[in-house]
Amino acid sequence: MPANTNGVDSAYTSAAKTDLQGLELVEHHFGPLLRPTRATKSPWTNYSINRLQTNQKYRTVVSVPRKGSEDDSEEDEYDKYIKACVSQIEDEMDFEHGTLQKCITILCNETVLDDEEPRSTDHIVRIYSPTAPMYIDVHFKYYCRSRRSEVEWQYTLGYKIQRRPSATASNALAIKNEIKMGGPEDVYAYNGWQTLGWGCYDDSYKNYGERGRRVEFGRVELHEEGVMDVHEVLFGELEKPAETDSEAMLAYHRSLVRGIRLLLAAVGISYDVACTDDESDHRPYELMLEGLSDKWVARGIRNACGLRLARDAEEERKGAMERQEAKGYDDDSEDDK
Asked: Which of 10, 13, 70, 91 is deepest in the core (most CB within 10 A)?
């Protein structure tokens, strides 16, 4: 997406028009914040300038849609997906409409449609924290195409936390260059990126043609420390309650799960992850994160958040059997899930 240098200049002017600094400067441009954390003036001032310049150079999902090109109309449609996904989380948290949506800036949106379904996407989206002078970049790359005798499918989803923003506009190309080309499990191996999850069908030479099979590989690579970091950056620190307080523990797990769901929502993925056995996992409609019927992404998010439902063990067993059957032969190798 081309840089808007005039917008960056106007951001400098906007920041210079006021004598405000630190948290007051952020509240002036982006308030009200949610329970802002304590920090010195410098981090908040840098955060404010970074956000002003980056929003002017690119765009937020709550900005006025730009007109004049076919590409812009596609971007606006993508904005709608993000708004719908994030709005659901706002409702769950009893936030005013737009509280989280205004924190999201689209740095890169490359989408190719197959009829009305996305064939390939490459998105980089930034979530500016509504509570701290930090942000999280989220990257989602996806490809799914049906051919005569096979289906090609793969995706990678990762994130990077920036705890000390610089007082400069971000560069989407520089961010893309941080992400490694290669197998899905290795894409986010460098430069501070973390893998959230990935999935693909086996693309070996044996899996093509009329006898090809949809052999699924994939993994959620979240861990508890990463989940806590995401929540701390977005919503502040979360104290774990006593194990004996079941109601408080459920609220605690919901909060952690919701933080990860916001990362997905920021790139237009709506995935409802159950937190009790009475609830159901609802996967995205247009984007395929699992190649078979097993909803291992939801289960993986729960596991990383320290939550294990009574049904998870049985569903994990059935999922392993389903993948084994898809291979069409016995394989004693360790399963990826």
From this structure: 10
Give which of 264, 244, 242, 246 is closest to 254, Cα–Cα: 246
User: Stretch 198-210: mean pLDDT, rounded?
Assistant: 70
Rounded CA gap, 293 and 13, in Å? 53
Q: Do residues 137 and 107 make contact, with C-beta atoms less than 8 angstroms apart?
A: yes
Among candidate residues 155, 170, 71, the one with its CA nearest the CA of residue 125: 170
Model confidence over 33-48: pLDDT tens digits? 998 988 889 999 999 9
**Whole-angstrom distance, CA of residue 31 vs CA of residue 274:** 32
Nearest Cα to Cα of residue 329 among 207, 159, 161, 177: 207
Q: What is the pLDDT of residues 288-304, one digit of tens each?
A: 999 999 999 999 999 99
DSSP three-state, residue 142:
strand
> What is the domain partition of the chain in residue ranges?
65-327
Contact 20, 65 (CB under 8 A): no
Q: Which two tokens stand for residue 325?
A: 């059957």
User: What DSSP state is assigned to residue 59?
Assistant: E
Give the C-alpha separation, 278 to 172, whole Å: 42
Instruction: Provide the pLDDT confidence category of residue 163 given band limits of 50, 70 and 90.
Output: very high
